[in-house]
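Long-time lurker. I teach an intro course on protein structure, and each term I like to show students one example going from raw sequence to a predicted 3D structure in C-alpha cell notation. This year I'd like something fresh instead of my usual example. Would anyone be willing to generate the C-alpha cells for the chain below so I can use it in lecture? Attribution to the forum is fine with me.
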Amino acid sequence: MTSLFDRVQLGPLTLPNRVVMAPMSRVRGTADGLATATMATYFAQRASAGLLISDGVAPNLVGTSNPGAAGLRTDAEAASWRQVTDAVHANGGRIVAQLMHGGRISHPSISGLQPVGPSAVAARASLFTTSGPLPAPVPRALGTDEVPEQARSYAEAAVRALDAGFDGVELHGANGYLIGQFLSSNANLRTDRYGGSVAGRIRFAVEAVEATVDAVGGDRVGIRLSPDAGIWDAVEEDVPDLYDALLGELERTGPAYVHLEATTDEDTMRALRRRWTGPLVVNPSTWLQRGGAPYGPVPTNRTIADHWLGLGADLISFGRAYVANPDLVERLRLGLPLAEADPATFYGGGAAGLVDYPTYRHTA
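-- Reply from a regular --
Happy to contribute to a lecture. Here you go:
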C-alpha cells in the first residue's frame, strides 16, 4: 500500500512525503493586509510537510472575508509574502497560496464594499468583523457580465502569488465561499448561464480554474472542494451529479490536483476518486454532526490517513493537527503522541499559539 512517507510528484514539484498542511485561516496579517515575519516563522517551522498550503488569501478587495488576514490583492501585499516563501524554501519546503474569494461571506466593515454573490441571499450566519460578530449582510447579486471579472480575480492573484515566490496556488472552492456559493442551490438562485442546472452551477468554478490555468499553467494550480458540507449555509443538491460533472470539466481543464474534504459519504468519495484521475489530496475532516449540521473536525491521525490512502488518495492534508505539531511528519513517522492545540489562539492575535508550540522532546 502507498505509504504516507513515499515521494510523490505534484506538477513540477517532487514532494518528499504525502503529508500536506491544510489551509487554515490563522488571521495573523497586519490590519492593512500584509504578511509578517511571525507568519514566515510559522510556515518555516512546518516545512517538513510534503506541501504547505497558506491561509485563505483574498484575491481582490470585494472578496475579502477575514479582517487582519494577509492578502494578494495588490503588488505590495504580494511583496510582503516573499519573506514567507523565502523562509519556507530556505527550510527545504514547498508552499502554495490558497486563493479565497469570500463572496457573500464578507461585510462592509471589513472591505468597505457591499459583498457580492451569485444571488441577493444572505447567509444565515454571524460573521467575525472588527466590530465583533455581526449578521451576514445581503450581498449584491453579480450581473451576468460581471461574473467573469470575479473569475479572473483568481488568475490575477495567482500571477502575484508566483511573483511572490509561491510554488503554485489553490483555488478555495470549498466551505461556502464564492465558488461554493455558485455550486449551491440555496445561495445561487440564478436563471442565467451561471445558475439553475448542474451545468450552470459549475460554470463559475470551471471558468475560475480555466482563467488561472491560462495565467500560470495547469501544473501550478489546484482546487479545494467540500461536497455536501453545508458550511456557511451553502446547501448543495444533486451532490453526486454536481461533483461528477465538475470533476469531468476539471479533467479537461487540467489543474495539477484536486483537494477534497471528506464532507460527504464514503461511497460518493470513492466515486469522485474514480472520476478524477489526477493527483488527489483528501482532507479527512471527520465532520461531526449537531442537529444535522457540521460543527467541527476531529484531528486527523495516522490511522485515518492510512485509511484514505487505501481508498485511493495520493496525499492527505492535516489541519488542526498541524497547529500544535510543527514536526508533524516526524511524529507521524515515529508514532509519537500529538500535542493538542488551544482553540483560544486559533484565530488572530500574535505569536502565542502560532509559533510557540515546540517539537517533540525525547526523554532518555
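Some talking points for your students: The chain has one domain: 8-345. The radius of gyration is 19 Å.
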